[in-house]
Amino acid sequence: MDIAVVDDEKAIREHICGLVEEQQPESRIEAYATGGELLASGKRFDIVFLDIQMEGMNGIEAARSLRERREDTVLVFVTGIKDYVFDAFDLYAFQYLLKPIDEEKFAEVLERAVREAAKKKERRVLFIKSRNLTLDQSEILYIESRAKKVEIHTTGAAQAIEIYAAMDELEAQLGENFYRCHRAYIVNMDCITEYDGESITLTNGDRVYLTKKKYGEFVKAYMWHLQNGGVSSV
Fold this sequence. Notes:
By secondary structure, the protein is an alpha/beta fold. The chain is built from 7 helices and 15 strands. The chain has a 5-stranded parallel sheet. A 5-stranded antiparallel sheet has the order 10-9-8-12-11, with helices on one face. The two termini are about 30 Å apart.
């Protein structure tokens, strides 16, 4: 595992690094004093322990920049103020730790984060039989039904791929990161930036319909997704 520890307090930074080394001795660990240093490194990490309150670029801003790069990092926020926890979850936090750090809680969180990072490394694909086409699910923003065809909107160069397929068939293939928010739409919950009672906005700015009677179910599914390691910027 490649793990980064970002905290402007040297003692805390070294403490976290020591705990990681003790529990995950085979991991590669790098420490940074600011969010700006982390981003400037240009390196991709499986797990990042990120202090929220730092001078200059704080942890919330650094997390937002990581997600704008579409980096699938497991983020664990570290904070001395519990009120920041809600902002952290809005920015795809996998978990948070309160200062002073409880070592037993840290061990539990790190173990879960390692499992989540390993899961994210497993490539999940969607196979389109009619085209003999295989798509990485992480590149799918949403799927839209258009009569007998569907359009798969992606982050790739093609952006939208039109195929003959049934929405029910595609929904069955997709993993728990996807939600059928309307009879004509399936969204990747990792790519949601905003939602209200009538629509969901994706990272490319597109808005899709959310069936009103599904709103409550969607919110529960989305909150569960966030709390179990999903990513979002709502």
